[in-house]
């Protein structure tokens, strides 16, 4: 496994976010703590906000990020131990935030697909342990702020974030982009349909109408649970949901000589390759197709729209040298296929040190082509390591500082390329701009 966290996410990297907190009154500074409990890891974001005057919305001044692996779902039968991993990260917040501000600093944890996949009781047990831990901490724990975020919301937030960051949300001639997020356990596709036929053809479940900053949107967003990269590995191996730890799962996408074990969601799986003659791209692709075929929606409009792809799309593209890790780049769907072909055909000779690379690339190819229905020549913007490291904050009147401020759009970090945004929906806009927001005051939500 590659380390997905570059030093730029490290603690106290002043260069990334120069602090502007010199001669300001301390009461103009406030903080927030946000946990993104993903299927492969738990991440903390500690935010510092600053408000220069009551006439101005607060802006993001600093972010500290840290993460641990594995994710909470790995502690399916040891909820206390799971909560301990969160405690370690929370201690960091105590070291960072001045004690005078602890009781007014909200702490929120939003879990994604790892917990969605667990039996409800087990997921709840984990969340309860975390809730307890938060309540014992000196921080503010708003109601309903330790919970599983649903996949629709995950998709909407990622879309809001990317379109905010690419400048589309506050552009007069809005030309929004779609997003493709490939997590460990689920995957999302979200875009703003322009064709009436797309809205008509889609099931109502996947159309999310909402209002944000005086504009109405009807997004298409579909989250597929179990179609994240790691969950897909299990599905391809035929091991998804399998509890038999003694069984050996085999695939033509793996090196023939391989025999190994892999732990996911608290279960240990034995896996290995097949005979050399049946190993390679062709047979691997056929195997992968079985788990994808006819399982996904194919809105025709996506073929003519721009999409930004991140998370594992990005990770695997960087791992195989398809794009530069800092710059990102444009990748054609067929580039993924060519790379998959190359890696899979070399399985019998080389040991890449990453036995799943052929399977992962083949899955990404099949997901894009046969799953979503993109063309071979469809271009994808593959940028940024971590959009789930991006957080959209939705302010409510919880922060008195927000009151009375006209609903001007945003207060991003001016001139910064930083990947976090502060979205301020003023208290006078009714809901925070997005309907059906969980009743969690001062809501700060992770994007996936
Ligand atoms: O702060 C982070 C940490 C990880 N990732 C990426 O998210 C993917 C893993 O997905 P996750 O664990 O969030 O699983 P999910 O619960 O979303 O299915 C990998 O590509 C990581 O590089 C990310 O975008 N931001
Ligand atoms: Ca995620």
TrEMBL record:
Broad class of enzyme this protein falls into: hydrolase
Chain positions recorded as ATP binding sites: 184-188
Catalytic residues (positions): 154 (proton acceptor)
Major subcellular location class: endoplasmic reticulum
Matching InterPro entries: GDA1_CD39_NTPase (IPR000407)
KW Endoplasmic reticulum (keyword) present: yes
Annotated pathway: Protein modification; protein glycosylation
Compartments (UniProt record): Endoplasmic reticulum; Secreted
GO CC terms of this entry: endoplasmic reticulum; extracellular region
Cofactor(s) named in the record: Mg(2+); Ca(2+)
Keywords: ATP-binding, Calcium, Disulfide bond, Endoplasmic reticulum, Glycoprotein, Hydrolase, Magnesium, Nucleotide-binding, Secreted, Signal
Catalysed reaction equations from the record: CDP + H2O = CMP + phosphate + H(+); GDP + H2O = GMP + phosphate + H(+); UDP + H2O = UMP + phosphate + H(+); a ribonucleoside 5'-diphosphate + H2O = a ribonucleoside 5'-phosphate + phosphate + H(+)
GO molecular function: ATP binding; nucleoside diphosphate phosphatase activity
UniProt KW Endoplasmic reticulum keyword: yes
EC numbers, comma separated: 3.6.1.6
One family name in Pfam for this protein: GDA1_CD39
PANTHER family per record: ADENOSINE/GUANOSINE DIPHOSPHATASE, NUCLEOSIDE DIPHOSPHATE PHOSPHATASE ENTPD5
Quaternary organization: Monomer; active form. Homodimer; disulfide-linked. Homodimers are enzymatically inactive.
Protein family membership: Belongs to the GDA1/CD39 NTPase family.
Role description: Hydrolyzes nucleoside diphosphates with a preference for GDP, IDP and UDP compared to ADP and CDP. In the lumen of the endoplasmic reticulum, hydrolyzes UDP that acts as an end-product feedback inhibitor of the UDP-Glc:glycoprotein glucosyltransferases. UMP can be transported back by an UDP-sugar antiporter to the cytosol where it is consumed to regenerate UDP-glucose. Therefore, it positively regulates protein reglucosylation by clearing UDP from the ER lumen and by promoting the regeneration of UDP-glucose.
Protein name as catalogued: nucleoside diphosphate phosphatase
Gene: entpd5a
